[in-house]
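Anyone opening a protein record will find just a pair of labelled lines. The record below illustrates this layout.
***
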Amino acid sequence: MAFLFNRGRSRSPAEIVRSSKELLSRIHESPNTPKVEEELAKQLSQMKVIVQGTQEVNTSPDQVHALVQAAIHEDLLYDLSQSIHLLPFEARKDTQTIFSHILRFRPTSYANDKDPPVISYLVHHRPEIIVELCRGYSHGQSAMPCGVILREALKFDVITAIVLYDQSGPGEPAVRLSELKPSLVQKGDGVFWNFFDWVDKSNFEVSADAFTTFREILTRHKSLVTAYLATNFDLFFGRFNGTLVQSDSYVTKRQSIKLLGEILLDRANYNVMMAYVESGENLKLCMKLLRDDRKMVQYEGFHVFKVFVANPNKSVAVQRILINNRDRLLRFLPKFLEDRTDDDQFTDEKSFLVRQIELLPKEPVERARPTRESQSGINPTAMA
């Protein structure tokens, strides 16, 4: 076996890359050609040995560096990102491994505080690769390998920025890092907005992986996402509430409500939270979740509902809804999920909300919205 690997290693990385590119072109022209698929699988297997090694063969930084340079020169990463769904199963797995290692690779002399060379290449010269990896969720075969590669890339905020701010359509150039316009309100037709459908309308495996990536986009790089949500607030939460929170899929619905709570209760998103809980429509949706037939949906909905009630600077619209429903809420909350007897924090929070509802005025009172978190009296960390 080692003999076979050594034969593969006798070819230069540049030759393997060129052969792979040619074979990928042939697969696009004539899909489901077994001989071409088999030969391409061999080339990808050799690349995997270069970047990962085996028990018998150690990796060589010089060989990996040569492979990375050749892949960039031949634009192989773009071809692979477009073609993963056409590859056989083992070839898809090898592509995932190759991509992940290349994304992390730093030459020996490269400073550790800088992004890896391929990350810089992607965001400045070939962001289409990231967009194509996202579009891998359109095909069941490529969803999971593309998801693994994307989550490796999304560890870097510049990659997340490309996903959030790209507005290109199929066949169009993607946005470069230098071209981002964070203050421009989006129309909802870029690649990021496709995640709502990938999560809600795909089969279970694709949906679950897409949601994992979606959550990674929205929670890892806080300052970037906070600014994005502030600029695209109405569009984002309209889509989030309408598509995900009200999804027909139990799993999507429950996970999305939980993610909504995480977003709102994250200290970095304080201004986003305050804008969300000013809306009477958002409160109505949340109260509807409390009456859902499924207990875990009720439970996750409760963690969003409590933000509305605990806010000492409620909008008139929110006050009016709570005041009009005061008696019903005071009857409902003490019996709400009363079988959670071992959850002391939940019991305490219910008691706190009952007290806050009891203290509501008879009529809504106009209140100025505070400008600083310290004025609000809400501690998102303590409520999480």
Remarks:
- The CA atoms of residues 24 and 79 lie 7 Å apart.
- Residues 34-52 form the longest helix (19 residues).
